[in-house]
Amino acid sequence: MLFLGIDLGSSSIKLSVFNPEKGISVGSVTVPDFEMPILAAQFGWAEQDPESWWQYVKDGIKKLGAHQNIDLKKIAGIGIAYQMHGLVLTDENLNPVRSSIIWCDSRAAVIGDEIYNKMGSENCQKQILGSPGNFTASKLKWVKDNEPEIFEKAKYMMLPGDFIAAKLSKIAQISTSGLSEAALWNFSEGKLATEILSQMGLSEDIVPEIVSSFGIQATIHPEIAQELGLELNTKITYRAGDQPNNALSLNVLKPGEIATTAGTSAVIYAVSNQDAYDKQNRVNTFLHVNNTELQKNNGVLLCINGSGILYQWLRKIMSTDRNGLISYEALNAEAAKAEPGSNGLRFYPFGNGVERIFNNKNANSGIQNLNFNIHQSSHLVRAACEGIVFAMNYGFDVMKSVGVSGNIVRAGNSNLFLSPVFREIFTNTTQTTLELYNTSGSEGAARGAAYGYGFYNSLEEAFDGLKCIERIEPNSTLTSRYQDIYQEWKNHIKIEL
Fold first, then answer.
1. Cβ partners under 8 Å of residue 146, min gap 6
2. CB contact burial 58-88 (16+ within 10 A = b; e otherwise)
3. What DSSP assignment string belongs to 102-146?
4. Which residues sit opposite 169 in a β-bridge?
5. pTM of the predicted model, to two decimals?
6. Phi, psi (deg, nearest 5) at residue 213
7. 196 and 118 Cβ atoms separated by less than 8 Å
8. How many whole angstroms separate alpha carbon 224 and alpha carbon 228?
9. Residue 495's pLDDT band (boundaries 50, 70, 90)?
10. pLDDT greater than 90 at residue 497
11. Which residues contact 430 (CB under 8 A, 6 or more apart)?
């Protein structure tokens, strides 16, 4: 018996097959071979084609069978992780009626603010623990107001992972956790946030069947099973947004446990058993994947939009057509050539849409103190790494103000955490111990699928074999140095804001 995990990101889609009896991943692929484009017809917009996601998922499953020597017929359950907050609108036949408005699209932030002010901060925060902000519900309202002919064609609103699940099963569904990511979950009453829909002039009919994060949600449609070479009885047994799933992948399931990642965006995600929220809406609270009626588990999330996408930008501008793109490993090595503080160069990584930690302001990226006679490429790369971590720590301070606590942070050994320099900056700036694990979002989704299917009796059992591969403690000398640099960086942010 095997389980498939799908991790739908904005740059790529990763698929892993997990053997629960051995407790190991037995195969994985990443599709496509290039980074998926983000379409930006106007400043602040960001869209992707849902049908292209679906085609890549099918390509990935077929590659697992053809090139990884995996018997796809043995896959019993599928788990799906996905980029959060995106809007996918489909007709009754599950065909998209427009491109997906993805997580970093900024166009609907004003709408979210209007609804928040109309409802009143206390009323709104009591229900959804924040503001509709730039989340899925506000994007849905934007389409209704600005594209009425397209909106009329829409039968279902879904998040990106729900769309992939719907294409697999031909059944439209959304999870309770997903509704909270969309700003459509009433925490105080434990149900769909109908008042938010009402204030936006939206009917709850557009919300598909609501399911839990774990469990037998749907069966793969026979036509799809035959096309992909899957068993006819294959089930969809787990779905979650990428950040709750990243926490799951790292076995971050209990209050006080903290996960982080630095992919396209940079995130710190902490589990809490309280309905915690920031009155300024700079961090956000969602249902964690293991939340139940008997055991409250929320995820408090900090997100910095410009992280891996900044590294991707550096990779492009530091490359030449003659030699091709410089590798990320080479960027990491370049950063290591510069000393902490980057010889006074400061980087502000805010160039990928509105930032929640600044109340949805469009705080654009910037470089400070650049000296043409002093600074080299190594300073630029290291300053970028420092700026990303400083922005994360800025938000981490907000999280602590709403009751988040913990001195150990877990991360996958991937993306920017592959960089020793980035790990050093993170550990000493946040003053936490960093634990690295050799896992991935797609493997976590596969483990989640195994639990949702019923192979494991508990999530603790599902992650029993997950081991820490490296533990990095703060260094007192470096901590003092980075705190000084961070304070200088932070003071400049306050002046700019």
1. none
2. bebbbbbbeeeebebeebbbbbbbbbbbbbb
3. -TT--TTHHHHHHHHHHH-HHHHHHHHSS--TTSHHHHHHHHHHH
4. none
5. 0.94
6. -65, -35
7. no
8. 6
9. low
10. no
11. 389, 392, 393, 396, 409
